[in-house]
Amino acid sequence: MPALSDDGRRVAYWYVGETREEPVRRGPVLAGVAVYDTVTGEVVRRPVPTDHGVNGADLVWSGDRLWLSWYAVRTPRGNSATSGGSVAWTPSTGEERAFPRLNGIGGATGADGGLVLGDGRFDVLGPTGGAVPDGAWRLSRLTSGPVHVSPDGTRIAVLEDPDGRANLSTGEPATVLVGALGPPGSTVRLREVGDGSWAGVAGWRDDNHVVVSRTMGPRAGEGDQQTTAFASLDVSTGFPAGLTEQHDPSYYSLVLARDALAAPTYRAPDAASHPDPRLLAGAVAAATLGGLVGLVLWRRRVRP
């Protein structure tokens, strides 16, 4: 899946390319990561040379750094993989740092250039260069999904594991948990914020508000269209204020730029509504038929 930089200007994605030997036989062959600048149109590539191809993993932006990890395909059949790699790469300078012990970055988020690993744990890997140091913390409660560090680096927000069994979440709505950060190696005491009706935490809007979401399935007559509703949750009072709704097919995954979470809101005019084409066709047919009937009656009247 593509990844947007914090300001939404750059798009990172895996690209298709050549391999050193016979490429994997199933599907396109991934050969590296590219970053597209939506303002200048410039594309910067970071190849991942392999014999047969790459199984691309997640991409995570953290400031100007892009974190990427991959697995190299072992044979052209593509049914197994060798050891891969994980790198923190700065596309603007080409600087990078390898993390050979990092096995995948699924469920990770960014903080001050570093990588925040969640999904039942809380570790921060550098280089950070900010308020959040490298290290690992214990969590006082079972959690599910990504961990998000506040902009000032003093607190984290995460969803509680609703069924109380780590890595066996049922996907049911859960409560947001927030806790203050101590030194690495300490325990983060998590407390509940608001009710337990949220499906995800998108990130921090500011130092006192977390952007949360809930997803509603397709309504009758809407096909596979689903609605994702976003709200700003005050971590002091637990009060949620609605932000916006996104309507997408259920098989789409929404990609957000982190800075968008802090953007001001305003009332936009409703989108123009388009008439049902069946009603429009029916109206045209009725008008045509009415015209023909009128013409026939007129000719009967004027006929001598």
UniProtKB/TrEMBL annotation:
Source domain of life: Bacteria
Keywords recorded for this protein, A-Z: Membrane, Transmembrane, Transmembrane helix
TM annotation in the entry: 279-298
InterPro entries assigned to the protein according to its UniProt record, in alphabetical order: Quino_amine_DH_bsu
Protein name listed in UniProt: WD40 repeat domain-containing protein
